Structure formats: C-alpha cells, structure tokens
Amino acid sequence: MKGESNKRIRALVSETGAEVRTVSEDQMSVFAPTREVLEDLLGRVESILQEEEENEEFEVGAIYPVVVKDVRDYGLIVELAPGVDILLHKSQMSHKFIIHPSELGVTVGQTINVKYYGRDPVTQRHHISRKALLSPPAQDSGSTVVQTLLDSFTSTSPHTDKHSKS
Question: Which of 23, 55, 88, 93 has the fewest C-beta atoms lying within 10 Å of its C-beta?
Fold first, then answer.
C-alpha cells in the first residue's frame, strides 16, 4: 500500500471503530463491532486498493499534465493522478539553478506538463521531470570563449616547431 491509500484506510478504520492486526507480510485480520460495519469497511478498502492499482499504470517516457498541490522549499507536490501526489524536485524544474520553486512563477492549482521516468525499485517513488521538456539554455559568452580557446589548442598541429631546426 502506498502512503495516500494507507492514510485513507487508517482513517476508515478509525472512523468505524474497527481493529486491524497484521498476520503476515501480505495478510491482515480485521475486527469490526458488527458484521455490517465489517462488510462496509472491506468494500471501501477494496475500492481504495482498486483505485491505487489503476493509478499504477503510468507509461515511462510519457508526458503527463499534473496539478500543483503545494509549493515547498525543495520542490512542488503535484498530483499525477487522483490520490497520487508526488514530488517534483526543484532540480527537475528548470535547466537553471533555482533556490526556491517560486522563482519560476508556479502557483498552487496550476497545471504543468512533466515527463514520467518510472519508479525507483527500492523506494517505490515516482520520478518526473519538467526540465526534460524544456529547451536547453543557449550557451553564454563565457562558455563560448572557453570553447573557442579549447578549439584553438586542438586545431594546432602537434608537429609545430618540434622537428624544425633553426
């Protein structure tokens, strides 16, 4: 179970007065005050888990519109799909270095496009990038000067004045 689904299920358990105990890694026991409460709870949990499963079908390399839910110091919390809120780290927002996401004028409620890169196999976190959809910045004059100097060194012949006698 992922974070958001886990929160929703815990809230349901608390709301109904039910009790959940872990039996094994993939099995739990649920105790409820009445049979009706138990059946209702299990139906609602199944619905949450089904929704989670449907949301797992993201295509690597696809471009998705996401809604900005929160602006934080380290990036944006965006909604990739209903119930799937993830982090768009500030390093993946722009080609230029930014101190805070607000520098880009992004606001809560705004829709932006991101490229989906899949899930980390260890942490199970989704990876997305807005930067991957933006054109790379033009070279500034400082890097052009450096490149020109590098080109001038590599274009000189390696035989200059080594073999000539005066």
Answer: 23
